[in-house]
Amino acid sequence: MINDIRNTVLAVLNKNNYGYISPQDFNLYAQQAQMDLFEDYFYAYNYQVNKENQRTSGTGYADIKKGYSEVIDFFSVTSSLTANGAITDGFFLPSVATTGFDYYLINKIFIGNVEAERIEQSKILLLNSSLLTSPSDLFPAYTTQGLTATIYPSPKSTPQCQYIRYPKPPKWTYVDLGSGSEPVFDQTQPDYQDFELFPDDATDLTMKILKYAGVSIREASVVQYAGAEQATENNSEK
Amino acid sequence: MAYISQYEYYQNEGNSPEDINWGSYQYISLKDIVVNYQLMYSGNHSLVNNEERYKILFHAKRAIQELNYDAFKEIKVLQLDVSESLRFILPSDYVNWVRISYYEDGVIRPMVENIQVNSASAYLQDNNYKILFDEYGNILKPEQSPLDLARIQGQKPSIYLNSLSPYNGLLGYEYEGCWYFDFAIGARFGLNTETANSNPTFRVDKKAGVINFNSAMAGNSCILEYVSDGMENGDDTQVTVNKLFEDYVYAYISYQILNGKLGVQEYVVNRARKAKSSLLRNAKIRLSNIHPGRLLMNLRGKDKWIK
Question: CB 3.0 to 4.6 Å from B59: which of A41, A104, B33, B253, for a disulfide?
Answer without folding.
Answer: B253
